Amino acid sequence: MYLDPENADAWSTKGSILSSIGKNEEALKCIDKALKIDPDNGEVLAFNGNFEEAWECINKAIS
After folding, report:
1. Do the Cβ atoms of 46 and 56 come closer than 8 Å?
2. How far is residue 48's CA from residue 29's CA, in Å, rounded to a whole number?
3. pLDDT tens for residues 35-50?
4. Domain at 8-62: CATH code
5. Closest CA to 13 of 55, 41, 40
């Protein structure tokens, strides 16, 4: 993110890692940042618990 602070996938990955080590509050901040950058990112939506919206975005992407 140092090189590209607008990389939603990097923010999502950081959030996932933080969540896996129990730093949930920090993880949510990263996921929120990722969603602000790319609100249609199915992977980020799913991680954030928006499974139905994530499914719609993923289906749209592969159609």
Report:
1. no
2. 11
3. 899 988 777 777 767 6
4. 1.25.40.10
5. 41
Please report, for the chain, the start and end positions of each structural domain, with discontinuous segments joined by +: 8-62
The per-residue pLDDT of the chain, averaged, comes to 81
Helix (H, G, I), strand (E, B) or coil at 50: coil
Instruction: Give how far the C-alpha of residue 17 lies from the chain's centroid of Cα atoms, to the nearest Å.
Output: 12
Closest Cα to residue 32, out of 19, 20, 62? 19
Q: In the chain, which residue ranges form alpha helices assigned H by DSSP?
A: 8-20, 24-37, 42-47, 51-62
Per the confidence metrics, is the pTM higher than 0.85?
no
